Amino acid sequence: MKAEMDREELLAWLRADDPIRLEALWRHADHVRQRCVGDAVHLRGLIEISNYCRRQCAYCGLRAGNRTLKRYRLCAEEIMAAAREVAAIGYGTVVLQGGEDPAIETGWIARLVRQIKAETPLAVTLSLGERDTAELAAWRAAGADRYLLRFETSDPALYQSIHPGLNGIPVHRIDLLAQIRALGYEVGSGIMVGLPGQTYASVAWDLLLFRELDLDMIGIGPFIAHPMTPLGARSGEQAVTGNEQVPNTVQMASTVVALARILCPQANIPSTTAMATLNPRQGCQLALERGANVVMPNFTPWIYRQLYEIYPSKGIPDSSADSICGRLENQLTGMGRRIGRGPGGRIGRWIGSKPEFEIYENVGYA
Ligand code: SF4
Fold first, then answer.
1. Which of 95, 96, 338, 346 is the most exposed place for a label (fewest CB within 10 A)?
2. How many CB atoms lie within 10 A of CB 332?
3. The pTM is what?
């Protein structure tokens, strides 16, 4: 098993159901993770800044058409308070995530990024959907370090069916990812595993695209539909005939995580919230044991957290940053892992104009 795996080899692994073979794959991915990015698990403090969204994704509870959801938008003071909490607890990165909220202004985000960079040592990751180049450039100029935008699936027809274009105009996320890279961001993307209509062949292409895009961060989670969405209403349907429909299970998603680790050995790969939602007891740990090296604990103020309902029962119902940190530290120690220090950027690639650097631990921006 090598980073040069081809499509046929990937397909064979994706279709594998022999537990002994799968165990060997997961062990190998864990070994690659250990050798290439080490035992540190980088923690990113997630702040969900707005649940308004102008899009109509067919699976997501934040879609504009979901009139049952109470909407919120954090003010700058609430975001800064949460960011200070992330810094105080010793994390190296804050992630500002939101729907495509038209009321979020370019200058407002730029000022927030500047303030976070001025007051804390945090790296700033943005995940605010499809934005135009001028906005992305302004945020990068303000100091944002990373941008996350999942392409969700490399199958164009499947993508269009779950993510309709605004006013009928599709945006090609792959092109947008290239623009984000050109602006000097670290680039994150990823997919959902088990979308209705998603075949093993399609996921094999997704994996090859991760490698081709040379992603710095790769998010992989099992597909979960919100019930108040078109796909939620159709849950349980078999979308692909025969045995080619990819299941939306933790096992399948963690196999994709393992293959992504082998193909992209130096990428930062989170253990996603969707894993922990499908398997609250073991989902997070299983991903960390099968190639993942990042966890994103939620620092959204508690009163808003349950309203960021991409799908129901999202995440771990815990309100205190101290208890999140204590629980994770115990869990990681039990796994022979430790909490990563510093911003935990992509190994071998400095953010912005800094020189290439090969050491992955304790990397600071100073
Ligand atoms: S997936 Fe993202 S863009 Fe689509 S409706 Fe949900 S928040 Fe909006």
1. 338
2. 20
3. 0.91
d(CA 219, CA 292): 9
Q: Is 42 in the pocket of ligand 1 (CB under 6 A)?
A: no
Is 100 a pocket residue for ligand 1 (Cβ < 6 Å)? yes
At 322, list the tokens.
């101290």
Question: What is residue 323's predicted lDDT score, i.e. its pLDDT?
Answer: 61
Mean pLDDT of 312-330: 65
CA dihedral 215→221→223→227, nearest 10 degrees, is -120
The answer to whether residues 284 and 229 touch, using CB atoms and an 8 Å cutoff, is no
CA dist 115 and 129 (Å) reads 22
The H or E element spanning position 339 is strand 338-339
54 lines ligand 1 (CB under 6 A): no
Ligand 1 centroid distance, CA of 184 (Å): 24
Closest Cα to atom 2 of ligand 1: 99
Q: With beta carbons less than 8 A apart as the criterion, state whether 64 and 54 touch.
A: yes
